[in-house]
Amino acid sequence: MRLRTIAIVVSTVIFIAIWIPFSTVVVPRWRAQVVDINDTPCVKQTVNQTWAHYSLSNDFNTDYQKSDSNGNVEFPERSISKNLIQRIVYTIIAYALVIAHGSVGIHANVYASDPVNAGVFGLEYEPTKSLPDKLIIKRCFVDHDIPDKIS
Predict the structure, then answer these.
(1) In a domain, 17, yes or no
(2) C-alpha distances in Å from residue 34, one per residue of 13, 93, 99, 120
(3) Cβ count near 94 (within 10 Å)
(4) Fewest beta carbons less than 10 Å away: which of 6, 32, 102, 136?
């Protein structure tokens, strides 16, 4: 009788635990300085961040910030919350979709683009390495630099 009670309690705890979501950091807080090729800080430069955890979700996320007076920009920590069942199901689906040009794992970038020169300059997050903290672009570019017609 005592063994049966223990089995019921343990089974109940496990059943409840697999349905409780827990959080995973996708990308830590990311600080970077945006400079041009002469190492001059870019002020009010639009910088984009994209991130996704394709093993846990199909969501592709994006955000942007403007650099401050020293060319610095900071993006907050990005995380995702899923329960154990969702994690198992999403991971299986992600690996099955790799066949159809899918992807698995964490992918994150910080980048700035220059529509006049059609250039994109970026940093890539690799979970096993330190976050890159200097974004070097061809030239500083702010929204008012966009001409009415690009020839």
Answers:
(1) no
(2) 49, 37, 37, 13
(3) 19
(4) 6
The string of pLDDT tens digits covering residues 59-110 is: 889 999 999 999 999 999 999 999 999 999 999 988 888 887 678 889 999 9
**Residues 130-140 pLDDT 10s:** 999 999 888 88
Closest to 60 (Cα-Cα) out of 48, 52, 68, 72: 52
Q: What is the mean pLDDT of the chain?
A: 86
Amino acid identity, residue 55?
A: S
What's the number of domains the chain is made of? 1
> Does 150 reside within a domain?
no
Of 47, 38, 44, 46, nearest to 69 by C-alpha is 44
**Exposed, middle or buried, 85 (CB in 10 Å: 0-12/13-18/19+)?**
exposed
The single residue listed with the structure tokens 């979970």 is 127
